[in-house]
Design brief:
Layout: H1 21-28, E1 32-36, E2 39-42, H2 44-63, E3 67-68, E4 74-76, H3 77-83, H4 85-88, E5 94-97, E6 103-106, H5 111-121, E7 130-139, E8 154-164, H6 167-187, E9 192-196, E10 206-213, E11 219-224, H7 244-251, E12 255-257, H8 265-269, E13 273-288, E14 298-300, E15 306-308, E16 310-317, H9 318-328, E17 330-331, E18 334-335, E19 346-350, H10 356-371, E20 376-379, H11 385-395, E21 399-403, H12 405-410, E22 412-417, E23 423-427, H13 431-434
This protein binds '5'-O-(N-(L-prolyl)-sulfamoyl)adenosine (P5A).
'5'-O-(N-(L-prolyl)-sulfamoyl)adenosine (P5A) binds next to β8, β13, β16 and α9.
C-alpha cells in the first residue's frame, strides 16, 4: 500500500481524552475514531490488526473442533424471558422496540440464541458433542466505558458454546477451549495467565479468566513465576486427546486477583509469586443446565429418555485484545506489533521523493516485496524524513526499510528492527530477498 493513497490520519499531539497508552496510541496511529462514548469506527490500519487477531482466534477455534456460524446482533427479548435473564441483566442491556412494539435487544452475549438454535435441530446424544462459535459485535451499556476499545460499549467478541450429554464430557469440551485459549494468546504474541474466576451474570460454577499482564491492567494480580516456563505452543494435542493433564499442569500454578489473594498462599506452595496488573482478554464458563433446563434444550440419551444438555460458553475479547497487546508491547515512540498480527510486515520509506533515481529504486523494492507476497506500507509522501521516521515508529510495523540520497549513492538501504532498535545496512539489490520465504 502506498501511503500517499492510503487513509492513515496520524496525530502528533496526544489526545487529551486518552488516559492510557493503548488508547493514546490507537488514536495517534489513526487506528480508531470514537463515534459515541465507547463506540468506535475502525479505520483501515486498526481494522487490519483486528482482522489479523480474528484470523488467529478463528484458526485455533477450528483446530479445537469448534464450528463457526454467525448469529445476528439484534435478538428478540422472548428467549431471554424464557431463560429468566431478561430482568436479571439490568441496565447493561440495550433494549429496543421495533415498529410493532416487539421487545428486541442488541445482544450482550448469545447463550439464549444459540441454545434456541441447538434445541430446534439437535435431538439425539449421537449428535454430541457440538461446539458452535461466532465472531460478532456485542453491546453492553457499560456504566463507565473507558480506555478506548478496552472497555467499549460496542465490542467484538468471539463466543463459543459447547453442548454435551453429561458433565464428564462437558469438562472435556471445557479443557479443549482452555488449551485453545493458551495457544491463541501465545500465537498473538502475548502471555496470558489462566485464573479461577467468578461467573457473574453468565452463571455456573467452573470458570477461568485469561489475563494479559501489563502495567496498566485494571486489576492487581498475583501469579506464580512458573508461568514463564510454560510454552502453550508445545502442547501439540489432537482432537479428542485427553487434555486434563495439560489443564492440571497450568491450574496447579497460583494465580489470583487482589480480592482473592490470600497473603499466606505464596509460602504454602513454596512458590515464587510475583505481583502485576492484568487485563482480562478471555473468559470461559461451564454452567451445565443453566440455560438448557429452562429452555428445554434436551437430547434423547442412550436409554431413550430426554436429558437437558450440559453447556459451557467461552469468550475472547477480540477488539479488547488490540488494546491489550499494545499495552503489553509499546515504547515512548509508539506501538511495537508482534509480527503475527502486524498490519504490515515492512514499512518502506523513500526519503528522497524528489530524486527520480532514488524513487525508482524504492518503487522497485516495493514491487519486489509485493511480488513475494510481503505486506508492505510504502511511505512515498512528499514529506520530510523526520515525519516519516516518527510516523513509522508510531504505527509500529516490525521492519523499517529506509532509502535516501546518501544510501542510494552507496547502494544500501537502512534496515531497522522496530522491537530491538537494531539497524543494519543492506545492499539495495538484496533487501527484498531478506524477506523471502
Ligand atoms: C462467554 C462467551 C461472556 O460473555 N458469554 C459468551 C460469555 N463472557 S464475558 O467475560 O462477559 O466476556 C468475554 C470477553 O469479552 C471481553 N469484553 C469486553 N471487551 C471490550 N469491552 C467490553 N465492555 C467488554 N466486556 C467483555 C472480555 O475480554 C471478556 O473476557
Amino acid at each position: 500500500m502506498r501511503l500517499s493513497r492510503y487513509f492513515l490520519p496520524t496525530l502528533k499531539e496526544t489526545p487529551s481524552e486518552a488516559q492510557i497508552a493503548s488508547h493514546r496510541l490507537m488514536l495517534r496511529a489513526g487506528m480508531v475514531r470514537q463515534g459515541a462514548a465507547g463506540i468506535y469506527s475502525w479505520l483501515p490500519l486498526g481494522l487490519k490488526v483486528l482482522k489479523n487477531i480474528e484470523s488467529i482466534v478463528r484458526e485455533e477455534q477450528d483446530r479445537a473442533g469448534a464450528i463457526e456460524l454467525l448469529m445476528p446482533t439484534i435478538q428478540s427479548a422472548d428467549l431471554w424471558i424464557e431463560s429468566g435473564r431478561y430482568d436479571d441483566y439490568g441496565k447493561e442491556m440495550l433494549r429496543i422496540e421495533d415498529r410493532h412494539d416487539r421487545k428486541m435487544l442488541f445482544g450482550p452475549t448469545n447463550e439464549e440464541l444459540v441454545t434456541d438454535i441447538f434445541r430446534r435441530e439437535i435431538k439425539s446424544y449421537k449428535d454430541l458433542p457440538k461446539n458452535l462459535y461466532h465472531i460478532q459485535w456485542k453491546f453492553r451499556d457499560e456504566i463507565r466505558p473507558r480506555f478506548g476499545v478496552m472497555r467499549g460499549r460496542e465490542f467484538l467478541m468471539k463466543d463459543a458454546y459447547s453442548f454435551d450429554l453429561d458433565a464428564e464430557n462437558a469438562v472435556k469440551s471445557y479443557n479443549a477451549m482452555f488449551v485453545a485459549y493458551l495457544r491463541t494468546f501465545a500465537r498473538l504474541g502475548v502471555k496470558a495467565i489462566p485464573m479461577r474466576a467468578d461467573t457473574g451474570p453468565i452463571g455456573g460454577d467452573l470458570s477461568h479468566e485469561f489475563i494479559v499482564v501489563a502495567d496498566t491492567g485494571e486489576s492487581e494480580v498475583f501469579f506464580d513465576k512458573g508461568f514463564e516456563d510454560f510454552d502453550p505452543l508445545s502442547v501439540d494435542s489432537g482432537l479428542g486427546d485427553d487434555l486434563q493433564p495439560v489443564v492440571d499442569q497450568w491450574t496447579s500454578l497460583y494465580a489470583a486477583t487482589e480480592e482473592m489473594h490470600d497473603p499466606d498462599a505464596p509460602e504454602a506452595g513454596g512458590a515464587d509469586i510475583v505481583k502485576g496488573r492484568g487485563i482480562e482478554v478471555g473468559h470461559i464458563f461451564f454452567f451445565g443446565e443453566k440455560y438448557s433446563k429452562p429452555m428445554k434444550a434436551e437430547v434423547q440419551g442412550p436409554d431413550g429418555k430426554p436429558v437437558p444438555v450440559q453447556m459451557g460458553s467461552y469468550g475472547i475479547g477480540v477488539s479488547r485484545l488490540v488494546g491489550a497487546i499494545i499495552e503489553a508491547s509499546h515504547d515512548e515512540h509508539g506501538i511495537i506489533w508482534p509480527e503475527a498480527i502486524a498490519p504490515y510486515k515492512v514499512g518502506l520509506m523513500n526519503l528522497a521523493t524528489k530524486d527520480a533515481d532514488c524513487t525508482a529504486a524504492c518503487d522497485k523494492i516495493y514491487a519486489d516485496l509485493r511480488s513475494q507476497g510481503v505486506e508492505v506500507l510504502y511511505d512515498d509522501r512528499n514529506t520530510g524524513a523526520g515525519a516519516k521516521f516518527s510516523d513509522m515508529d508510531l504505527i509500529g510495523l516490525p521492519w523499517q526499510v529506509a532509502l535516501g540520497n546518501r544510501g542510494f549513492k552507496n547502494g544500501v538501504v537502512e534496515l531497522k528492527n522496530r522491537a530491538t532498535g537494531d539497524r543494519e545496512e543492506v545492499a539495495i539489490a538484496d533487501i527484498a530477498a531478506r524477506f523471502a520465504g
